[in-house]
Amino acid sequence: MVVSTATAAATAAVLVRVMPKFAVLYEARANTGIDRATIINTVAKAVPEPHKVDLNNPEKTIVVEIVKTICLIGVVEKYKEFSKYNLRQLTSRKQ
């Protein structure tokens, strides 16, 4: 299920630009039965070539969140630059 959802998300969003670099972010809440490394590797392998993994400076971030038995996958841009999309952190930064 994770592979098919990741493939669909990658096709819909990551492929918008030519050869974007991406990272995979994994978070789990109330679930200890799924291995973090397995999910990250599975999602990264689902993204077709010629896209490359770049953990230091990704153009897109594939966010995988598991809450109990529900898996949420999204693709976002500028994840680090926008303070992980946390409004409190984003607005409290010193300019």
UniProtKB/TrEMBL annotation:
<dbReference type="InterPro" id="IPR004114">
    <property type="entry name" value="THUMP_dom"/>
</dbReference>
<dbReference type="GO" id="GO:0003723">
    <property type="term" value="F:RNA binding"/>
</dbReference>
<protein>
    <submittedName>
        <fullName>THUMP domain-containing protein 1-like protein</fullName>
    </submittedName>
</protein>
<dbReference type="GO" id="GO:0006400">
    <property type="term" value="P:tRNA modification"/>
</dbReference>
<dbReference type="Pfam" id="PF02926">
    <property type="entry name" value="THUMP"/>
</dbReference>
<keyword id="KW-0694">RNA-binding</keyword>
<feature type="domain" description="THUMP">
    <location>
        <begin position="1"/>
        <end position="77"/>
    </location>
</feature>
<dbReference type="InterPro" id="IPR040183">
    <property type="entry name" value="THUMPD1-like"/>
</dbReference>
